[in-house]
Design a protein that fits this description.
Layout (H helix, E strand, L loop, with lengths): L1 H5 L7 H4 L11 E2 L7 E4 L5 E2 L10 E2 L5 E3 L5 E2 L1 H17 L5 H11 L8 H20 L5 H21 L5 H8 L2 H10 L7 H22 L1
Antiparallel strand pairs: 1-2, 2-5, 3-4, 5-6
Length: 218
């Protein structure tokens, strides 16, 4: 759905042919009937293969309902597209630098979308950029701001590891962003005896540094 709405083409790869998009649910919605399941497409590629013919060209199918994977209630695709379009409009209307309004929109949309939906990922990227700008302006950012930026990056990483495996700039930014917070944690406890937590921090910083070298040479 993300490719269809943003890039205007359909794909039949393993991810796009899977209604859950390899378990990421990047296009799924929360079911308003049972409040437990995800609404997924019954025909994610929207294509049907014709009977034997000389070209075997795939044609678009008009039947593309969405169904809750728990209660099995069905929804028309027009309703899903309208819901996503409205969410995108709300995202475009909010001021990119208004963190309070953006955080409020994130909480509001979480009632309709799972945290890993592509609209939610766009919203989280907007928030990460806003927090980054705030940190650059303030030489002494609060721990709350640093932790929130780190939390948002960690929320996105599991999805990015599936949809953008290996070396990628987006995944690299999500990995590198928490480094400043971790450095502050380590600096605060440098005078303390070595602990397991500090060792874990240092190992993660080493991983981040190694990944940064790969990103620069990619």
């Amino acid at each position: 759905m993300h490719l269809r709405e943003g890039k205007y083409f359909d794909c039949t790869c393993r991810r796009c042919s899977d209604p859950t998009e390899l378990g990421t649910h990047m296009s799924s919605l929360r079911c308003p009937r049972c409040y437990e399941g995800f609404i997924i497409s019954t025909n994610p590629t929207r294509t049907v293969t014709p009977k034997q013919g000389p070209q075997h060209v795939k044609t678009v199918s008009a039947d593309n309902c969405w169904e809750c994977n728990k209660c099995k209630h069905r929804y028309q695709s027009n309703l899903i597209r309208t819901t996503v379009s409205l969410a995108r409009c709300l995202l475009n209307d909010v001021s990119k630098g208004d963190i309070r309004a953006t955080e409020g929109l994130l909480r509001r949309l979480l009632r309709t979308f799972p945290p890993q939906h592509f609209v939610m990922l766009e919203l989280k990227q907007t928030l990460v950029a806003a927090y980054r700008d705030m940190i650059l302006r303030d030489p002494n950012p609060t721990r709350k701001i640093l932790n929130r930026k780190t939390e948002l990056c960690r929320d996105m990483l599991p999805v990015l590891q599936v949809v953008e495996p290996g070396i990628s700039r987006l995944r690299g930014r999500a990995i590198l962003s928490p480094s400043f917070t971790i450095i502050l944690h380590v600096r605060e406890h440098l005078s303390d005896p070595p602990s397991m937590l500090i060792c874990q921090y240092l190992k993660f910083l080493l991983y981040i540094s190694t990944y940064a070298i790969f990103i620069k040479t990619y």
